[in-house]
Amino acid sequence: MKQQDKRTLYLLQGFYLFAFFGFGSLAPLLSVYLSEVEKLNGYQIGTLLSIGPVITIFFQPLWGMVADLKNAHNRVLTITTALAGIFGLGYLIFGQYYWLLFVAVMTGVFQSAIIPLSDSISLKFSGKARINYGNIRLFGSLGFGLAVFVMGRLSEWNPQAIFYAFFITLILAAIISLRFPRENSSGSTKMLGGMKELLGIKQFVVFMFVTFLVFGPNLANNFYFGLFLEDRGGTYTGIGIAFLIAVLSEIPFMRAAGFLINRIGLLQVAAIGGLVSLLRWSFYFTQPDLSIIYISSVVQGFSLGLFIPAGLQYVKQVTPVAVTATAVTIYSAIGNGLGNWFFTFVGGMIFEVYSIYSIYLFFAVMTSAGVLLTLWLIKKEKEDVKAGKEVLAQHIASK
């Protein structure tokens, strides 16, 4: 590998490490903070937690178009990352619900740009340097896992520490992003025109439903897993340990995903990830012992560690090269935005009326639908391959 490529690789890995450390400082422990410190009810917590994903639906494509239009991906990423960290400090300043709602909105607006812009830069670099994207993205899992472990312990001393960590690490990530390789503009009109073309690709549209149904509950779990562990008798430190096990377990599976994809196929790997998630949510609904929950946390790596790289590569496979960037943006908005919002918001209502365990029953039912759709896509893929072989055979025979 060239020296310049090595330097860029380390910068990208460093960005993911610090950015996801910030995410991991806030997301898993925010629900507990709002419940115990701010004394908010289930509806209020669900609304605050779901604001970010809702904003993501609308602002992720917008940030992408702004970056393309100005040919300033690095600059936009730097500014939005820094502002997200600054607005996150608002949770320390304001205590009233509606002010907290304002803070959640502003933080979400700028945070929504971080993942798609950094992914866009990373995917282009990994393709150019012939590096596995998973070897960059796994540093995000590492940062997230370290954050929930460290901040889980610090939160027992001072619950407000999660906001200071969110601010500091995002500022560091913003500084690192200043040194990223420049990404050429693809043109905003190309992105808007590509959306219509993508809607005509049946496999892409169906897989967006799969992403919504499988990835959405996994992201919403980041908010409710802390309450789930607390209800089972866990402490802040225990929540941190469980998240550390869950998130760090993604790393070896992300590294192994490429091998499995080559052996059995993209959709098959995605189906396995979805099935493992289904089993996990069903298990949590049974109210298992705390010690077993800690041990079972490793299955998150099995599910997300496989689904994330397989899903992204499948989207690139079934879409034309000219609209790949648009496809990835929509894929991110559906999973990180719409799916995250829906399951987080509905989860808050279920938590208020029923219990934390009912949330996981809801997750299990919806994930099962996602697995069934994936199996349909696998069947459709096999039928298309068979039909293609028959056409080829007829063409050869005609000659």
Structure commentary:
By secondary structure, the chain is an all-alpha fold. It has a single domain (3-398), classed as MFS general substrate transporter like domains (Growth Hormone, Chain: A, Up-down Bundle). It is built from 17 helices and no strands. It has helices at residues 3-36, 42-70, 73-88, 90-93, 97-111, 114-129, 134-157, 161-177, 188-199, 202-231, 236-248, 250-264, 266-285, 290-296, 299-318, 324-353, 356-398. The longest helix is centred in the last third of the chain and has 43 residues, at 356-398. The chain starts with a helix and ends with a helix.
Question: What's the arrangement of secondary structure elements?
Answer:
Layout: H1 3-36, H2 42-70, H3 73-88, H4 90-93, H5 97-111, H6 114-129, H7 134-157, H8 161-177, H9 188-199, H10 202-231, H11 236-248, H12 250-264, H13 266-285, H14 290-296, H15 299-318, H16 324-353, H17 356-398
Transmembrane segments: 9-30, 42-64, 76-93, 99-117, 138-155, 161-178, 199-216, 236-254, 266-286, 292-315, 327-351, 357-378
GO cellular component, one term: plasma membrane
Organism: Mesobacillus zeae
How many extended strands? 0
Radius of gyration: 21 Å
Assign the CATH superfamily.
MFS general substrate transporter like domains
Determine the structural class based on helices, strands and strand pairing: mainly alpha
Helix content: over 70%
CATH class: Mainly Alpha
The termini sit apart by 47 Å
Average of pLDDT? 83
**Poorly predicted ranges:** none
Per the principal axes of the C-alpha atoms, what is the gross shape?
Answer: globular
